[in-house]
Each structure stands twice: as C-alpha cells, then as structure tokens.
Amino acid sequence: MQQTLKGREILLYAKTLAPTLGKKERSIAQFIENNPDVISSMRINDVSTFLKVSVASITKVSKKLGCHGFHELKNSISQINYLEDEQLQQEVYDPESHQEVLERTVMNSILALQESLTLINSTVFNQVAQLLINFDEKKKLVLVGCGGSSALCYDFHHKLLKIGIFSNVYYDSHMQQMSASLMQPGDIAIGISHSGKTSDVFHMLKTARANGASTVSITNYLNSPVTVVSDHAIVSSVKNNPITGENASTRIVHLNILDALFTILANERGQKSQTNLHKTRDSVLAKRV
C-alpha cells in the first residue's frame, strides 16, 4: 500500500486487511486493531514474543498498513484520542429495535471468542492446565477477582467443587491479602482482572508469589501490572465493546478459558471426576421442584 495512513485510519485498514492475510500476519493485524492503547507502549520484540511471530512479519504488516515500520506505526497510533473515539462510537450506534440489540450483542461475543483463539498464547495456557493437573489437593487453591471478575471466580469455584476440588474465593480485600500471606510452595493463586490493574488482585498475587505459591493471572492486557507478578499470564486481548460495557466481551472469553481448564481437569481425573460429579449432582436433587 502506497498511501500513508494515520491514527484511526490504520486501525480501520487493519480490520479490512486482516481477512486477506495468512494466519500469522492476520494475528498481527487483529492484535493491532484490537489493542491500539497497548501497541503504542510496546516494543516490537514484545509483540513478537506474545504472538509468537517473527519481527520481520510485524515489520511487513506495518508496511502493509501504510507505515515505514513498526516504530512509525505505534507512534501514529499513540496520537489517537481514545476517549473521543469511544464517545463517537456510543453516539453513532442507534439501534432500530430490541432484536437488533440482541443480534449485535451476540455477534460481538462470537467475534470476541473467535479472536481469542488466535491471540491466546497456547504454550502459557498448557502450562496453566498442567499446573492444575499436578495440583496437590492438600494444598490451597485461591481464586481472586473484583467486580465482574469475582463472578467468574465463583463460577470456577462451583465447577471445581463438582469434581471434588476444594478452592477458596474471597470477596473482601482484607481476607484476600490475609489468605495470600499464608500461602506456601505448592499452593496456587489465580487472579482475574480485565484491566490487569486491579490493585487488590495485584497485591494478592504479589504476596502469594513472595511466599512461594504459583501465581496465575487472566487478563485482557499484555504487560499489565498483574502479569508482572504472575508466573503464568493468560492474556486474551479482546477488543472492548462500548455498547455492553468496558469488559463485557472479555468476561465471556475469560469464562470460556476457565471452562476449558475445568474440562481438561475433569478429563484428566477420569473416573474420580465422574464419581464426584454423580455425588454432587445427587446431593442437590431434592432441591428441585
């Protein structure tokens, strides 16, 4: 492409260009489109490591997007006024019917899930799965999240209980920090934060890690504070949806990540999982009308 593009034009063209590219170049274009605020503060080697692509591929895509290289691309993107852009999106979207709202909301969730398959680092995901598979049930498994993320923690806690794995979920920030202070090697702390900047989750993971526990974070932002204090960081990098809230699409992706980890655990535990599933299911049959 010969024409020089600037700021938001780059993001729009990345969205248009992505479907025509090969798998690796497509993942680069999608990452640029979905994470302009992150891209502007990253080095080319950071993007290369995260997406598992070569520096040359990133430079090639940058040139296809009308820039001389990655440095020019990220400098141009950094000039975008994101607050103004989000307000514009809010104003432009004017649904004609409730059905349209339903269809658009569902489609946004589907697109978020599709994008996550391309962007989530499978090596890190496999490491987390193996960590949970090897977990000694005599040790502690603590789940921490605030706001909408706390609901994901409780959902995972509920699923784990079905197959006989006891975990702890703390909503109070003092109890989160107290539990972290008592963690030891062999324990696992999992923190969920859409922004990666939630202070309670950050401090809990930091303390748990200092005490020798394995720490896992699930977030939407690469190189965010919670990833720095995590042994394993699963990063979804899904584009925010201004209609349903800042982290609505991300929350659906994070729920599916946890569901995948649960499914792996249940399968790996074999008959033990099946036995416990039957026990826990039968225990609440009398609660049904």
UniProtKB/TrEMBL annotation:
Q: Entry's CDD domains?
A: SIS_RpiR
Cross-referenced InterPro entries, in alphabetical order? Homeodomain-like_sf, HTH_RpiR, RpiR-like, RpiR-like_SIS, SIS_dom, SIS_dom_sf, WH-like_DNA-bd_sf
Name the Gene Ontology molecular function terms of this record.
carbohydrate derivative binding; DNA binding; DNA-binding transcription factor activity
Query: Does the keyword DNA-binding feature in the UniProt annotation?
Result: yes
Q: What is the lineage of its organism?
A: Bacteria, Pseudomonadati, Pseudomonadota, Gammaproteobacteria, Enterobacterales
Keywords noted in UniProt: DNA-binding, Transcription, Transcription regulation
Segments forming domain SIS: 128-271
Q: Which residues form a coiled coil?
A: none
Looking up Gene3D superfamilies in the UniProt record yields: Glucose-6-phosphate isomerase like protein, domain 1, Winged helix-like DNA-binding domain superfamily/Winged helix DNA-binding domain
Q: Which residues form the HTH rpiR-type domain?
A: 8-84
Q: How is this protein named in the record?
A: RpiR family transcriptional regulator
Question: What's one GO BP annotation on this UniProt entry?
Answer: carbohydrate derivative metabolic process
Q: Which organism is it from?
A: Rouxiella badensis
